[in-house]
Amino acid sequence: MSEEDPFSNALAQLASVADLLTIEPEYYETLKNPRRELTVSLPVKLIGGNPTTFVGYRVQHNNARGPYKGGLRYHPRVGLSEVKALAMWMTWKTAIIDIPFGGSKGGITVDPTKLTRDDLEILTRKYVDALERDIGPDVDITAPDVNTNAQTMAWIMNEYSRLRGHNEPAVSTGKPIELGGSEGRSAATGRGVAICVREAVKRFLKKGVKDVTVAVQGFGNVGSNTVSCLMDMGAKVVAVSDVLGGARATGRTPGWSFGDLQAAVKKRGSVGKVGGAEEISNEELLESEVDVLVPAALENQITEANAKRVRARLIVEAANGPTTPHADHVLDRGGVYVVPDILANSGGVLVSYFEWVQNLNRDHWPEEAVNERLELKMKKAFNEVVDHSVKESVDLRRSAIALAVDRVVTAMRISGWH
Ligand code: GLU
Question: Which residue among 72, 116, 260, 271 sits deepest, i.e. has the most Cβ atoms within 10 Å of its Cβ?
């Protein structure tokens, strides 16, 4: 298997914590594979185009701690291995942030930029039709992920409600506020990442967040909200990028504001065109001379090939799976701290949980209440992972996965899975 096969990497991570666990081997074996892997074929008559059949996936890894929970990703290269890995990571993520959910993930192999909005709506509805009996507020709850957003979740909610014959907001999270979406959900993942940066800088670099330089790869929902929150905290975000390229400030203090970055995307199509800065590639961004690197794009960005060229002392993983297990070894030997994805980006699913609770109670919380709870939960989880890593003398990823697996297995054992 290549270094970049996501599911092999997820399994390698699970194997790397085996010696830290005191769990029965049968539970360990069960966790290696998802409980259910669904592949659905989605024939769509594209408006003004040819009839096309798309392939969709929903992988449900584990539901010992609560209903399956995970996002839905639209990408031309989405495949089963990737969705399986992402589903397993969701199980660890919901356990580490300690919310009563299991883990799942969905995907459709499609390039959404090639479809009209109407066609995307039809495709999303077809996906719900195909999986109607496999998702639901008590079964498996969807959310936005790469290339899906609040609008996608609105379509999911509407289609599911139509099929069921009653309004059912809790089938998806990350919805528009007007349809039962939570205040603070769209910024939540980035906000949680920024909190982890702040806490990790304090703990490992013995600095304040205002004293560090940061490079952020990716300027989608997660990347842009991370940049915005970090700037609000006073951090110096000196390098940014998106799929089309990046920009690096020429001095140690960037001459751009968050508004300048947004304007570059809007007017010139890429954050890399912000101006007053040096244009760089994504590869160069990862190797920037900064204190903190935040990969906020896709998997397998930091590999055995480039890990030794990473100059940041701290990596905070906003994306899922940006660092391969081979790269982890290189970084660990080089003394680079890595705050793992399942902790660093768990603010998103945490506020999804808050949204689900609000929906079930027909309630709506103010933004301050959401952000206050987010802050408390993130800090608690961060401290638990760090303390456990000290106790076991292991890196933060192994610490987080071991803690998460232990919580999942405890639930399996008490409820009698075997
Ligand atoms: N897709 C996001 C993630 O990977 C959010 C999942 C959710 O809110 O359910 O964590």
Answer: 72
- Catalytic residue numbers? 105
pLDDT of the residue at 24: 87
275 CA from centroid of ligand 1 (Å): 33
How much is the pTM? Answer: 0.97
**Tokens encoding 27:** 């539970």
Buried b (16+ CB within 10 A) or exposed e, 316-340: bbbbbbbbbbbbbebbbeeebbbbb
Q: Two tokens at 28?
A: 């360990």
Which pLDDT score is estimated for 50? 86
C-alpha closest to that of 131 among 171, 167, 101 = 171
Closest C-alpha to ligand 1, atom 9: 70
CA of 278 to the centre of ligand 1 (A): 33
Distance (angstroms) between ligand 1 centre and the Cα of 63 equals: 16
- H/E element holding 247? strand 245-249
Q: Domains in the chain and their CATH numbers?
A: 6-169 (3.40.50.10860), 188-339 (3.40.50.720)
Instruction: Report the nearest atom of ligand 1 relative to the CA of 349.
Output: 8
* pLDDT value, residue 1: 63
Predicted confidence (pLDDT) per residue in 77-90, tens digit = 999 999 999 999 99
Residues of the chain below pLDDT 70: 1
- Ligand 1 atom closest to Cα of 173? 8
Determine the atom of ligand 1 nearest the C-alpha atom of 93.
10
Sign of CA dihedral 119, 122, 127, 128: positive
The pLDDT, as a whole number, for residue 150 is: 98
